[in-house]
Design goal:
Blueprint: E1 11-17, E2 22-27, E3 32-36, H1 37-42, H2 47-50, E4 68-74, E5 78-83, E6 92-93, H3 94-102, H4 104-118
Length: about 140
């Protein structure tokens, strides 16, 4: 999912819309996605969010108002956003961006289910990791 496959459409345009907090991505197959910054942030492919293996994902909360303050190119295959909360370690490959856009409805539903299972609200502040928790330096 997060790798780069030869059959994945590539972006022909990427536009940050700060007021509506979405990344508009136009792909070579003609599809255009409006991916909310919040969705990008809660599904960031970074170790800080995804952990280092299955079951180690860190549920993100309080990201509704997050902005993308910078979008840096990574070679010819990805972008690295810097979010207003300081998170900047996720590299979004073209196929991962396409996946986020294409699967938005399912991803939102999964996120809302995880929030409900954890008994937390989408707007709840993030709980700091414990000393025995994540140790990537982020």
């Amino acid at each position: 999912m997060a790798g780069l496959r030869n059959d994945t459409p590539t972006p022909e345009s990427l536009t940050l819309h700060g007021k509506s907090r979405v990344l508009e991505a136009g792909f070579s197959d003609g599809r255009v996605f409006r991916i909310p910054f919040e969705l990008m942030r809660v599904y960031s492919p970074s170790a800080e969010v995804q952990g280092h293996g299955p079951g180690q994902e860190v549920l993100q909360t309080g990201k509704r108002e997050v902005d993308v303050v910078e979008l840096e190119s990574v070679g010819n295959y990805a972008v690295k956003p810097t979010f207003s909360d300081g998170h900047d370690s996720g590299i979004f490959s073209w196929d991962f961006l396409y996946f986020l856009g294409d699967q938005q409805a399912r991803l939102w539903a999964e996120y809302e289910k995880r929030l409900a299972e954890a008994g937390v609200d989408r707007d709840a502040p993030m709980v700091a990791a414990s000393a025995s928790g994540h140790s990537c330096g982020h």
